[in-house]
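Subject: Interface between my chains keeps coming out wrong

I've been trying for a while to get a sensible model of this assembly. When I model each chain on its own everything looks fine, but I need the whole thing in one frame so I can look at the contacts. Pasting all components below, labels as-is. Any help appreciated, I'm running out of ideas.
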Amino acid sequence: MNFFRLTADLMHLLSIFVLLLKIQKTRSCSGISFKTQLLYAVVFVTRYLDLLKWISLYNTLMKIFFIASSIYILYLMKIKFRATYDPSQDTFRIEFLLGACLLLALVFNYTFTFIEVLWTFSIYLEAVAILPQLFMLSRTGEAETITTHYLFALGAYRGLYLLNWIWRFYTEHHIDWIVWVAGAIQTALYSDFFYIYYKKVLHGQKFELP
Amino acid sequence: EQLKHEKDEL
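Reply #2:
Try treating it as a single job with all components included. I did that and got this:
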């Protein structure tokens, strides 16, 4: 564990708490893409098939939290606050993402086993899971400030993982190409968002696309 | 090249 990784994980936790706060406070999931949340649930379930393999208490607790919270968010969006979700805004075709990620995982993996291919699939899927949310944002052209804080924390989490990998490469000679490439793509997808967040939200303005 | 990818990261 190093500073970047711990901060990244805490940002990831924070992003989920901010999302839960947004839904509970406004009693609405408007502006949130159900498809992105569904993809995150798929990511966590397929990645943490090794849940029973002991690495550390920290590792196990975080895995349980990520799986449980992602499913709870689906429950909030699909059942509790169903009326506030507008599917006509959430039109990104996730079938293509799922198909492409599965195909890539079958071809580019470390070991061709069931668990390993699903782990690789989850890494690729996480990289693009935010696309329905960003697509929704670009369609509506604006977002509630708390929603942008959620997205910022989520993007920062991945950005910090990049620093963690650089750190681990130099201190432990840790190499993980699959995770690196997917993580770099995932962070790059946030670049436009980061720019507008910095320009507008951090200066007290509403998030609006130019 | 050492392909060390123990799944210790989340």
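Reply #3:
Confirming on my end. Chain B touches chain A at residues 1-5, 7-10 (CB under 8 Å).
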